[in-house]
Amino acid sequence: xxxxxxxxxxxxxxxxxxxxxxxxxxxxxxxxxxxxxxxxxxxxxxxxxxxxxxxxxxxxxxxxxxxxxxxxxxxxxxxxxxxxxxxxxxxxxxxxxxxxxxxxxxxxxxxxxxxxxxxxxxxxxxxxxxxxxxxxxxxxxxxxxxxxxxxxxxxxxxxxxxxxxxxxxxxxxxxxxxxxxxxxxxxxxxxxxxxxxxxxxxxxxxxxxxxxxxx
Length: 215
Ligand code: GRF
Description:
2 domains; single chain
């Protein structure tokens, strides 16, 4: 099978991009074919350059034709730390072939303005004992599309937004490649995929992630 060509949308440091570049370096299932940034100063662009992956900067992230053209022949579009709303025509063009990773257990703690440290401040303020990462399909609204996979992360006493963010980011870096490979292996089907639907894998992941985090 020819590897699924990924277009990765970025805005910032690119740690999620890096985790995909590393995880897919020798993969026959998927590979990062292009990086598209909403910001010219994104650290992610340097990561793309180092990996020899073509990268472009969007002149206008709100222009659907421009966004669609920049994504080219991608078989799967991955929003990795991307902070702009995807224009509806671009969402339609990549329906069920565009995914996002969010640093909380959606549908809670998502939506407009919910990114970065603000997400973790809200989780801490809520008194929630558990947070986590979510990978979901992108639709016309921020953080609302069907959920593909979630991975829980314990909130610890004394956590700050920074310590919780770091713990969640570490789990994002495991979850995103896992979901991308699984979707690619299934040929990015035109129907919503749900991973760990029976909860057992989720529980196992939970126990695993808690055990790992206790390590
Ligand atoms: C983090 O806030 C992460 O939770 C979210 O995007 C940011 C990571 O950005 N998914 P990057 O991948 O390091 O640029």
